[in-house]
Amino acid sequence: MKNKLKRIISVFVCFVLILSITACSSSNTTKEKVSKPFVYSGYTKAEFKDYKKSSQYVEMSDGTKLAVDIYLPTNGPEQAAFPVVFQYTPYGRAFIMPDVKWYEKPFIKNSVGTWGPVLDRANSFGTVYGSTDKMVNLFLSHGYAYVCADMRGTGASYGTKIDFSPKLAEDGFELVNWIEDQVWSDGSVGMFGGSYLGYSQIITAGQTPKALKAIFPEVFPMDGFTGEIRPGGIFLWAYSQLDMQSYLEHNYYLPDEGYYPTAPVVDEDGDGKLDDEIPLDLNGNGTFLDDYSYPGNPNDPPQYADGEKREHLYYLGVYEHLENTPYSDLGPKTAFIDDEWEYTDGGKTKTVSAYSVGPSSALAAIMESGVPVYNHGGWMDPFVRGTTELYSTLKDTNPSKLVIDAGYHEGTSPYWEYFGEDEEEVLAKYGVEMLRFFDRYLKGIENGIDTEPPVYIYNMNGDGWRAENEWPLARQEMKSYYFAENGTLDTIIAAAGTDLYTVNYKHDARWGKSYRTSRWQMASPDELPVRTELDKMSLTYTTAPMTQDTEVTGHPVVDFWVSSTADNGDFFIYLEDVDENGKAVLVTEGLLRAGFNGLYDNDTMIQGREKGIDVKPELPWHGYEKSQYNDAVFANGSIVQLTVDLLPTSWVFKEGHSIRVSIACADWPTFEILPELSPTNNPDDPDNIVPVITVHRDGEHPSHLMLPVIPR
């Protein structure tokens, strides 16, 4: 009887355990199937444990050979063809360290995650918005092939590059078509990446290759002229001085400065190594291109560490890059958005302008194609206005999403620590978000990404991450703060008056110890941008302390009336959060050359076949055409209205803090000084003209700040 009772109890216990396990399993399955911003499980699995990489040249229709890396998932389920995620880059698809010593390898392994010498996009590659290697491995493990191509005139590709030339778009189209035709491709292609890789996606999508099913462009402008060449019509001088792109395009080896040559495509001597395919740098100046007179002189071919003979495939490709047109030549010559420049294509001279080659030139075709677009920006990125414009303009014709965080152009930001966030954790989540997006549109997985609220923003100094249904927010209330006496901001128009400001060319809006840069130079500073001291070199207007937390989310605008002792001038506007101790932290900023004071329909920023597109949101647009510029706008004592939209933001001014507008008339050396005032572009030149600015504030000239306040 006792044994029988034991058996009954045992059976009962087993039955309960089975029920419990089944229930837990069911519960876990339910819990695991989650799809929301930055969180994704249960819809797809990491089934592939490894990958196989190969490299080859792909020939374009004009005969130019482009270097391409292909990564295919392995060690997983039997699968012959995969959807493909594709990056099309001028920044090098992979790098190589030519002379790594055995004793250096442990340090390299510890610092970049691989023993070397090849640093590629699956083993060690950090880039804009996090580490590409983590994203690539995530895609590979979930059954995506990954392809990365060097643009013509860059990396190990052949050809010459003219920034923003139509040939780059045509190459993107041909590469997507080539991917579609490969046996390892299932015919569905998605693209991702930031900055120039955001641009390359838009122009490729504008060619409407049928295999391109989705794009995830990050941190780049809709209008290239005001985004990168002349924000507010003022030449971005510092960017034209950078050597980075030239070093990359010519494959310099300057390890102390972080430059490595792009990895070769072909192992010509068949020894299983690629580092010995880099020609010797005989004079040790970082480049091998000035060491040989080949190919003009067949008796002076490149030399190699192993002394073996080669066809010089790598050298000959990089040699063609010497004919590239650098941005430092192009930018200064483009004073107006309708300025034209010539370039040679296939022996023919062609003419383009910022209108015809900017990202916006591709919008009409993209809207007609209906390709899904996930726009990603950062509040501290100089292109964030363009991020909101792309989303708002495309959302009615294309499946569209928008995410904006607290990052600078590269994603990193001192604000993350300021708001108590783990920067690395935040940036790592973007791979998950891309996986959700590509699963939906490349694999057809119904994971709900297309039915959730389309906007996801980081509310700085307030709620943190939150979803929204639109941009700008429907519940915003535009509130005016008027310039008033004694440098104050008031909610009512105060007594008439004027404020004088003597231009200070020493005003330099860079900060930090290591980068010494501003958002406009597209690099993250190492310190929070505190403007307390810079405000002493500026004209400021500050509110009384806030009596309650005040959220500003949207596009702030400063509308003010100015006269000057000079005929023209530049204006840099800063919105700041001032705490109880007077510490002023930058929130956002804007700028304008006064000669572009006229306002025009913002739809005219897109011309040609794209006319008729309704550009949204409705923001101030100053035309920037040559005929719209007045180089004597202040002549004869004219009082001129200047309307400056600041870059969009989402910020909470805490109770007890004040809101400040700070106005300066120079930001050198980031931006040029107006040539009429300083022909030498030197703030210390004793011959500079130093104007006195008058800001007018009265009923006829109600100078004020307009903020999109969100009721809380």
UniProtKB/TrEMBL annotation:
<protein>
    <submittedName>
        <fullName>CocE/NonD family hydrolase</fullName>
    </submittedName>
</protein>
<keyword id="KW-0378">Hydrolase</keyword>
<dbReference type="Pfam" id="PF02129">
    <property type="entry name" value="Peptidase_S15"/>
</dbReference>
<dbReference type="InterPro" id="IPR000383">
    <property type="entry name" value="Xaa-Pro-like_dom"/>
</dbReference>
<dbReference type="Pfam" id="PF08530">
    <property type="entry name" value="PepX_C"/>
</dbReference>
<dbReference type="InterPro" id="IPR008979">
    <property type="entry name" value="Galactose-bd-like_sf"/>
</dbReference>
<keyword id="KW-0732">Signal</keyword>
<dbReference type="GO" id="GO:0008239">
    <property type="term" value="F:dipeptidyl-peptidase activity"/>
</dbReference>
<dbReference type="InterPro" id="IPR013736">
    <property type="entry name" value="Xaa-Pro_dipept_C"/>
</dbReference>
<feature type="domain" description="Xaa-Pro dipeptidyl-peptidase C-terminal">
    <location>
        <begin position="435"/>
        <end position="706"/>
    </location>
</feature>
<dbReference type="InterPro" id="IPR029058">
    <property type="entry name" value="AB_hydrolase_fold"/>
</dbReference>
<dbReference type="InterPro" id="IPR005674">
    <property type="entry name" value="CocE/Ser_esterase"/>
</dbReference>
<feature type="signal peptide">
    <location>
        <begin position="1"/>
        <end position="25"/>
    </location>
</feature>
